[in-house]
Design a protein that fits this description.
Blueprint (H helix, E strand, L loop, with lengths): L26 E4 L4 E4 L8 H12 L50 E4 L5 E3 L12 H9 L3 E4 L10 E3 L4 E3 L4 H6 L5 H27 L23 H10 L3 H9 L1 H6 L9 H13 L9 H10 L12 H7 L14 H14 L13 E9 L5 E8 L2 E3 L9 H16 L10 E3 L1 H9 L2 E2 L4 E2 L4 E2 L2 E7 L5 E6 L2 E3 L5 E3 L2 E3 L4 E3 L35 H9 L4 H10 L5 H11 L16 H9 L11 H9 L4 H10 L4 H10 L41 E11 L7 E8 L2 E6 L2 E4 L10 E6 L3
Parallel strand pairs: 10-16, 11-19
Antiparallel strand pairs: 1-2, 3-4, 3-5, 5-6, 6-7, 8-9, 8-15, 12-15, 13-14, 16-25, 17-18, 20-21, 21-22, 21-25, 22-23, 23-24
């Protein structure tokens, strides 16, 4: 039998330690008589059986002789790490607010360790995450190593080698990052001094979420199966428990199990549907979640020792497969459960099982309404999404006075190196978060097609369809002053019953005028390269019969990226009156100065001190609000906080030049399934929901800590904490990170 069908085949890791000598012995067992034949045995066995046995024995298995904490593909040190040349070009990388320097992407950004360029990636095998500018840059320059921004912690960072075409280790990463002003060891110190003092206030979060201090009753049977933690893999365990509590996923994988196994390819370890079916069966069959026998319990009491329970499954093969080639999930560090959820949905989309994809239950359409503040004209667009991201409305906290007092006490204690005061957790009304979600937000670098110039723009999002299952992520993670991804420790009264019908999209309204459909020109940064126009691309286009001047403009405005990209520009601009006019390049510095004036540039002399801004941002407020508050209070931190709480709405006339940090994460927009021309499949219906599960995170950042999952099953809450599955006594619904809601049938 292929071992891909047995979730609990596991070679005991004791055998791996050096204290033992051991021999491998293999037998073929024939059921039901349990007839054993020692292997190898060429004389008695048919050739096909011998070949099958050999293949099984030599198969690369994630179980074989590997330490539990290093079973993932061991990353190799890059051959470039030791000799990497770093340019002295004065580049310094700020702790947040990054953007690809060649496009507008703000996530999946990679910092090239040679020249400090920040560019978007595209090397996930799932195709998500960017326009591949980092890879392009490598092809132009040959600079081999890049680190993913947002993964830098004192323990390391995710490094990719373009030359070796795989995730690698960089033993000199601290030195390489310091070159660009990122101090990992400094982070280590701040992390540690936080750690020691952190224990008292933080403990509460760990205790509350894991329901410590209460004797919890273990649950057994189908759907109550634990999952072993394979070294920081609780993010995967929590997400998979939630996914397999959904009937559509149960039917698609476990309901179709015989068919999936029958049709699985020659190597089932590399087949997504086989691995999903196997994992689902492990969780739902009840075979790996049996209550202890009475005799075992009596023996335990008599001998006063706990025999290890052989319950729960160990999802090694599943994790090895699902994280293959993914620089983050194949590492052994803690990861963001929300990113993993989207990664999983992506794989479900790309491996259809039967006629319907179970991931359809999460998919919904978002209508984005963008408005140019000057001309008041609007544009409506639609995109697919799988997660509703809910901002934390810190300014609406109901316990403001205690929070301000705590923040001041905490800073005094830190300065005097005294123990920190008891933690005060911000209490945020859910209503305020929902309100913040529905408010307009400023659009970065908005180019108005009505004015054909940059201008201020605002964007609102509404639901063009409501999904069957609504996944709500609370945006708790931000970046602190020193690059450490930081978590807002807040309590939000998440409702059991949720009605978001009022967020239904309404489309173009009577009296609204649409923005004209003109694409913005691509402007090249001022440097000598700007004026080199790649003549060979120009000639290629001219040979197709386009006017020479138009071809020169096309190549110039698309940044010499080749004839194909320039051709797309030509097609988009053919109808314009000045299509064949000669190219006019702006004099050096001209654009910059007029642009700054148009933005009402602020004199730097009245900029508040960066460290004060950072303190307020790290408490969970937007950057522009922090700057406004400090300006309004003459840079007095305490009064600035009071100002924010008394001005919950950022003033309409806020300065667009300041609103530069938009931590918006549209990673999910990249998942657009290859749905063909018929458009994405959605299951629309009423916007009324009931809560049935949530995933909580403990710890200070997504890069560390622990995840657990609470699910409502058969009328009661159950806590899934890796291998432990127990009836929940006090589900901490206010501290979750990702919430799962199911539509209430009307």
């Amino acid at each position: 039998h292929s071992s891909s069908c047995f979730p609990d085949l596991e070679i005991s890791s004791d055998l791996n330690s050096d204290d033992f000598e051991y021999e491998d012995e293999a037998k073929l067992v024939i059921f039901p008589d349990h007839y054993e034949i020692s292997l190898p045995n060429i004389e008695e066995l048919p050739a096909l059986v011998t070949i099958a046995c050999d293949a099984l024995l030599s198969a690369k298995s994630p179980y074989r002789k590997q330490e539990p904490d290093s079973w993932e593909e061991e990353l190799q040190a890059s051959k470039h790490a030791k000799t990497l040349v770093q340019l002295d070009n004065g580049v310094r990388i700020p702790p947040s607010g990054w953007k690809c320097s060649k496009c507008d992407l703000r996530e999946n950004l990679w910092l090239n360790l040679t020249d400090g360029s920040v560019l978007c990636g595209k090397w996930f095998f799932d195709g998500s995450g960017g326009n591949g500018h980092a890879m392009e840059h490598y092809k132009e320059t040959g600079y081999p190593l890049a680190v993913k921004l947002g993964t830098i912690t004192p323990d390391g960072a995710d490094v990719y080698s373009f030359d070796e075409e795989e995730p690698v280790l960089d033993p000199h990463i601290a030195k390489h990052l310091a070159h660009f002003g990122i101090d990992m060891l400094q982070m280590q110190v701040t992390e540690n001094c936080l750690r020691d003092n952190d224990i008292k206030p933080r403990v509460s979060e760990w205790e509350v979420i894991q329901e410590a201090g209460v004797k919890l009753k273990p649950m057994y049977g189908p759907g109550y199966t634990g999952m072993k933690n394979l070294g920081n893999s609780c993010y995967l365990n929590a997400v998979m428990q939630a996914i397999f509590s959904i009937p559509e996923f149960q039917r698609a994988y476990v309901g179709n199990l015989p068919r999936i196994f029958d049709y699985s390819p020659l190597d089932p370890t590399q087949d997504f549907n086989t691995q999903m079916a196997k994992l689902g069966h492990g969780l739902l069959s009840g075979q790996y979640s049996k209550p202890p026998m009475k005799s075992e319990l009596i023996e335990q009491v008599m001998k006063e020792e706990h025999k290890p329970q052989h319950n729960g499954i160990s999802p090694r093969m599943f994790k090895a497969f699902i994280s293959k080639g993914h620089p983050e999930f194949s590492s052994n560090r803690q990861q963001d459960a929300q990113e993993f959820f989207l990664h999983l949905i992506n794989l479900v989309e790309r491996n259809p099982v039967g006629s319907e994809n179970p991931s359809d239950v999460f998919r919904f359409l978002v209508e984005e309404r963008t408005q140019c503040c000057q001309s008041r004209k609007v544009r409506y667009t639609e995109r697919v999404d799988y997660i509703m991201q809910l901002p934390v409305a810190m300014e609406a906290a109901t316990n403001k006075d205690e929070l301000i007092a705590y923040e001041l006490k905490r800073r005094e204690a830190e300065a005097a190196r005294r123990p920190l005061p008891e933690l005060v957790r911000a209490k945020i009304p859910f209503r305020a978060c929902l309100q913040a979600f529905s408010e307009p937000s400023n659009v970065e670098d908005f180019w108005s097609s009505a004015l054909q110039a940059k201008s201020a723009g605002v964007k609102t999002s509404r639901f063009a369809s409501f999904p069957e299952y609504l996944v709500v992520q609370i945006k708790k993670f931000t970046f602190g002053l020193d690059w450490i991804p930081k978590k807002l420790d807040v309590s939000i009264d998440m409702p059991d019953f949720l009605d978001i019908s009022h967020l239904r999209a309404r489309g173009l309204q009577p009296g609204e005028e649409e923005l004209p459909d003109i694409a913005p020109p691509i402007v090249i940064p001022d440097d000598s390269k700007a004026l080199d126009i790649d003549e060979s691309s120009v000639m290629q286009l001219a040979e197709m019969g386009f006017p020479l001047e138009a071809c020169r403009k096309a190549v110039y405005y698309t940044g010499n990226l080749g004839a194909e990209v320039a051709f797309n520009w030509i097609i988009a601009h053919m109808e314009e009156p000045d299509f064949a006019e000669p190219l006019v390049t702006p004099a050096f510095g001209e654009v910059a100065s007029s642009g700054a004036a148009a933005l009402g540039a602020v004199g730097l002399d009245n900029q508040p001190p960066e460290e004060m801004v950072a303190i307020i941002i790290s408490m969970g407020f937007q950057r522009n609000l922090a700057i406004q508050a400090l300006k309004a209070t003459n840079n007095n931190l305490e009064r600035a906080l009071e100002w924010i709480f008394s001005h919950p709405d950022p003033e309409e006339e806020s300065d667009p030049a300041l609103d530069t940090v938009d931590m918006e994460n549209n990673a999910n927009a990249n998942i657009l399934a290859e749905t063909g021309s018929e458009g994405p499949r959605i299951k629309d219906g009423p916007g009324r929901y009931e809560l049935f599960g949530f995933i909580s995170h403990m710890g200070t950042s997504t890069m560390s800590g622990h995840y657990v999952c609470h699910l409502r099953k058969e009328g009661r809450w159950v806590i899934y904490n890796d291998l432990r599955v127990c009836a929940s006594e006090r589900p901490p619904k206010d501290l979750g990170y990702i919430y799962f809601y199911h539509r209430i049938p009307s």
